[in-house]
Amino acid sequence: MAPPTEVLVQTSPETHPHVPKRTTVKALVESDGFTSIPSNYSCATHPNESDASDPNDTIPTIDFSLLNSGDPHQRSKVIQDIDKACQEWGFFMLVNHDVSETLMKAVLDGCNEFFNLPMEEKLEFAAKDVWKPIRFGTGVDTKVEKFFFWRDFLKVIAHPEFHSLSKPQGFSEVVQEYCKRSQEVAMELLKAISESLGFEESYIEKAMNLKSGFQLFAANLYPPCPQPDLAMGIPAHTDHGLLTLLIENGIRGLQIQHNGNWIHVNPLPNTFLVNIADHLEILSNGRFKSIMHRAVVNSQSTRISIAIPNGPSLDTMVSPAPELVDNESRPAAYIPMKYKDYMDLQLEGKPCLERIRLPVA
After folding, report:
1. Mean predicted lDDT score pLDDT of the chain
2. HSE (CB half, 13 Å, CA atoms) of 46?
3. What is the pTM of this model?
4. Cα dist. 120→116, 218, 248 in Å?
5. Is 2 part of any domain?
6. Which residues lie within the region annotated Disordered (predicted)?
7. What is the pLDDT of residues 161-210, one digit of tens each?
8. CA 17 to CA 246: how far, in whole Å?
9. Which of 83, 195, 233, 271 has the fewest other C-beta atoms within 10 Å?
């Protein structure tokens, strides 16, 4: 079939002559005679596969079950391990997290069903307003996308109010349960992180007003790309919020930056990939590092990933914790900013963390 002509309303570069209007990546791949990517999907600074390595034995792995084992020594040890991972990597794999493999598979299968819906049904959720509670689109969410990215997405605001999807049947219930269980995991991790900073376990929950915290369900589809050496799924970036929990369908594509090098991530089965996000770096006054990461594509298989950013309430003013600031030896490293204002800046494609980072005296 020919590529659909519906426009997914986004600021976008000049369109390739063979694609009259912007379409989804999935529709593009499924169009007749598709063997090479349009020029406006070609990334001039695309990383080569050889740019990234595979040191799987060095990526931190955290056993979530030890946080609630009842053994104070084990709990203390795993909190130290989390603290080290947050400082040195900004990333870890989480095992034994009690979110069932059945639920994780069901939510991935549901996302696949959604992306396989007829175009006209998915377009019911297409919108220019990035704050729309349920939104389907393509590319990335910035106003300065210089070329098209090889990704279609579904985003659902899941907290403080969950917004139900009307299709496919039963999908919304699975998403809601998955978001609830993911949030429970994130909250337990933030308790441990609070303790690692020398606070009571509820410190971050109270300071960031997490009872009204912002949680997003973001599903990403990366169809096979005939020229993966030219395209990019998502460019290098950091996340807003405190912690992001990510799963994928067994097809690798996530790369993280560590000590200036890009590293392929090959997760163990049934694990969460957890990355520190900007507002935990800010709250910790730079002790923890928000990790730079990106998504690459392949020519063989469709990759689906689901990211769950967990952040403060939208009206929370986020700044370094006062207890971690000493005007002489450890001055505040970031300018305070309301969480929603920060997200709005990020959606404009601006390097937000650098904008609010104070110069070192």
Report:
1. 89
2. 19
3. 0.91
4. 11, 20, 26
5. no
6. 1-20
7. 999 999 999 999 999 999 999 999 999 999 999 999 999 999 999 999 99
8. 36
9. 83
Count of domains forming the chain: 1
Q: What is the pLDDT of residues 306-328, one digit of tens each?
A: 999 999 999 999 999 999 999 78
Phi, psi of 227 (to 5 degrees): -135, 70
Question: What is the 8-class DSSP label of residue 95?
Answer: E
Instruction: Name the one residue in this structure whose structure tokens are 């704050």.
Output: 131
CA distance 227 to 230: 6
Q: Do residues 202 and 188 touch, judged by C-beta distance below 8 A?
A: no
One-letter amino acid at 306 equals I
CATH number (domain holding residue 301): 2.60.120.330
The CA distances from residue 254 to 76, 105, 250, in Å, are 30, 19, 11
State the pLDDT at residue 21: 59
DSSP per-residue codes, 296-342: ---SS--EEEEEEEE---TT-EE---GGG-BTTTB---B--EEHHHH
Instruction: Report residue 89 CA to chain centroid gap.
Output: 16
Identify each DSSP E strand in 190-302 by its residue range.
215-222, 234-237, 243-248, 254-258, 261-264, 272-276, 293-295
In the predicted model, is pLDDT for residue 54 greater than 80? no
In angstroms, rounded to a whole number, what is the distance separating the alpha carbons of residues 26 and 151?
8
Model confidence at 121: pLDDT above 80:
yes
- The verdict on whether omega for the bond into residue 160 sits within 30 degrees of 0, i.e. cis, is yes
Q: Which domain holds residue 290?
A: 25-356
CB 182 within 8 A of CB 245: yes
